[in-house]
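Let's sit down with a protein and look at its sequence and fold side by side. Which protein we use is up to you, so please pick one and set it down. Label the sequence line and the structure token line clearly, so we can match residues to local backbone shapes. Go ahead whenever you are ready, and we will take it from there:

***
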Amino acid sequence: MARKKIIAGNWKMNKTPSEAVELCKELIPLVKNDDVDVVFCVPAIDIIPVIDAVKGTNIQVGAEDMSFEDKGAFTGQISAAMLVDAGVKYVILGHSERREYNHETSEEINKKVLKAFENGLTPIMCCGETLAQREQGITLDWIRQQVKVGFQNVTADQAKQAVIAYEPIWAIGTGKTATTEQAEEVCKGIRECIAEIYDDATAAAIRIQYGGSVNGGNAAELFAQADIDGGLVGGASLKADFGKIVNY
């Protein structure tokens, strides 16, 4: 059975609640496509207004991060239960910006992945290498390590529902895109890693996105690759171009 493409927008720290609702009004008719899963991953303060704005459409809402704790004295954090109660379906975990600026480790991301599954959320777990790591020839070694630690104690049934987003750090927001061959090579390597951890059936089921300067011009070629099941889209998700990506 063919994997359904998943195209998620990562809004990052953009759009006030009122701006978010306006953007939703603009994008709703442009991203209407039942052949792909469309997700808006929005800042925490925008979650509830965006969920209201997209009600009755094909759009699902995701969060950009969450805590691995259930509740308690964790000022500024948001729990999985809070996200679920608000109507969130997906959560981005381990984005390179969180790893870099918030010093998140793969072990912490693994705790979040487990907590997401425990609460019925679908994790979009990010992995990716720096330019230095690519030039050193350790791209696949590095990413395999991120995947293996990130999926520790995750069952095969859970893994089949997960999404992995491969984002070469050197291509995020730089305008540089990995070549189609580079993107496919790593996504294929991730699928092979999942097959090693679990089995071929799990590897065949899991969805792997490419992220890193995806736009309306390069989406069709990227998404045509055997192991690329859609995209995690940054800047282009904040404008009409996102409609072209969804309808690649």
Remarks:
- DSSP finds twelve helices and eight strands in the chain.
- The mean pLDDT is 97.
- The longest strand covers residues 37-42.
- The two ends are 21 Å apart (CA to CA).
